[in-house]
């Protein structure tokens, strides 16, 4: 049974780390077990793909399929845990002001834009994630499919799906608690051609707090 975690009051606490992630870019932060991460949609309607790696053993990484299995759901909600490819809890959702995210789809890459008829170079979110973790010795092919925070996928007949504009508004957020020491990488989606971000791109804010 999913329980509702307690959310600390961070009002009087300065964040231990603060990132501003611009559209088409990604950034990393090291988070210790028991610390909290706020991922904030600064303007609204912007998808924030996120991946995580165990800090001292980066072959252990976030897995959307294991996350769905562990929570018995294709949706994230408060109390759910983002789980690793080895089945271990990495992050717990302790607060969510939106309630609609995506665990099914990969990050947009060069092939995605080619399929959309874009034949010129276009920023790609998967590239951004790979560039951000490269300094940790993590290669492009080791970047897992992300947890797509704020991404709104609508389901239609016969198993089809469509992008719909995110439900997030200005300063909506997801707050996570680290269940192990993790390297967290958060992107701001580069997709400006579909409804994934409502055709308008904006910054994602990441704040890390002591527990």
Question: Summarize this, please?
Answer:
With 211 residues, this protein is mainly beta.
Overview of the structural elements:
The protein is globular. Strand 5 (81-83) and strand 6 (89-96) form a beta hairpin. The strands form 3 sheets. The chain has a 6-stranded antiparallel sheet with strand order 1-12-3-10-6-5. It is mainly β. The protein has helices at 64-71, 110-115, 125-133; strands at 17-21, 26-31, 36-41, 48-54, 81-83, 89-96, 147-149, 152-155, 161-164, 172-178, 182-187, 204-209. It starts with 16 loop residues before the first strand and ends with a strand.
Per-chain topology:
Layout: E1 17-21, E2 26-31, E3 36-41, E4 48-54, H1 64-71, E5 81-83, E6 89-96, H2 110-115, H3 125-133, E7 147-149, E8 152-155, E9 161-164, E10 172-178, E11 182-187, E12 204-209
Antiparallel strand pairs: 1-12, 2-11, 3-10, 3-12, 4-7, 4-11, 5-6, 6-10, 8-9
Number of DSSP-assigned strands:
12
Overall mean pLDDT score?
95
Number of helices: 3
- Give the oligomeric state: single chain
Largest sheet: 6 strands, antiparallel
Estimated share of beta-strand residues: 25-35%
Shape: globular
Keywords:
211 residues, mainly beta, six-stranded antiparallel beta sheet, four-stranded antiparallel beta sheet, 12 strands
């Amino acid at each position: 049974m999913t329980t509702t975690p307690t959310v600390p009051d961070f009002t009087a606490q300065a964040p231990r780390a603060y990132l501003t992630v611009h559209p088409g870019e990604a950034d990393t932060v090291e988070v210790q077990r028991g610390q909290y991460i706020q991922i904030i949609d600064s303007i609204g309607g912007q998808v924030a793909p996120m991946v995580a790696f165990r800090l001292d053993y980066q072959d252990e990484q976030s897995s959307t399929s294991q996350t769905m299995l562990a929570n018995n759901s294709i949706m994230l909600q408060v109390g759910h845990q983002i789980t690793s490819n080895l089945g271990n809890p990495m992050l717990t959702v302790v607060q969510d002001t939106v309630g609609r995210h995506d665990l099914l789809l990969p990050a947009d890459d060069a092939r995605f834009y080619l399929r959309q008829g874009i034949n010129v170079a276009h920023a790609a979110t998967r590239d951004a994630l790979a560039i951000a973790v490269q300094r940790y010795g993590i290669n492009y092919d080791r970047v897992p499919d992300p947890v797509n925070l704020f991404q709104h996928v609508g389901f239609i007949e016969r198993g089809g799906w469509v992008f719909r504009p995110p439900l997030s508004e200005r300063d909506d957020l997801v707050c996570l608690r680290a269940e192990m020491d993790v390297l967290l990488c958060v992107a701001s989606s580069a997709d400006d051609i579909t409804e994934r971000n409502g055709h308008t791109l904006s910054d994602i804010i990441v704040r890390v707090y002591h527990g």
